[in-house]
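Consider the record:
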Amino acid sequence: MIQKLTQTGGCEIPPFYSIKRELLLALLCFLSAILLWSFQDQREQRALAGRIAPGILRFHVIGNSNSRADQERKLQVKSFLLEQIEKGMGAPADWEKSDVKQFLLENREKLEQETEDFLCSLGGRADPVSLDIVWQEFPEKFYGNLSLPAGSYEAAQIRIGNGRGRNWWCVLYPKVCVTKDAVTQVPEASLERFQKLLSEEDFQALKAQRPEIHIKLRSLEWAAEQAGRLRGRLRRSGRALTEPARPVR
């Protein structure tokens, strides 16, 4: 049998290796494009976060540990504190960021003590609780129909006990935090407050849909297309390799 070979740069390479090289190059180009897109997306996210962060106050609760009991206590503390803040400040529609910060700082010791007493009422350990206003890094987070880009934000940080467990966060101002179920839609009053705080361009950027869903679908389509092409070329190459040689006359 005669084995057909592909001529490349003076060297004879079997068709399979030529196909493999082309697929590898295509994959490298695709991965490079994804990395460039990711880098640009991160730059845009941090730029957007830098513009909107001054008007936003996040709420961050850190559990004592990752044990199931400590994580349940963390969520109970979250709900308890949000209710205490709302009781002390009144309707969220009347809040301003400076008012929320002032309330937390002026009532810090009281809120810490009330939360510790609440934990004692639940039974188990009497974990200490600390409340601070800090600037810290947050990843990108979606709240129903609103997204907040990754970046540095000011936050009311509550640390329970050793503070080595998983954390829970939301937006305290404009209020997106809830005490029971997860947010599926941001309250209309909060959306209006966001719109007043931000430029129209930045506000629309926060309402953008999740891009990763479309990227995953395009990636799967591309992979399926390339796999189909490879299978077709391998079948053609296989027939060429096994085809009996024609006699020379």
Notes: Confidence is low (pLDDT under 50) at residues 1-8, 212-217, 240-249. The first helix runs from residue 15 to 52.
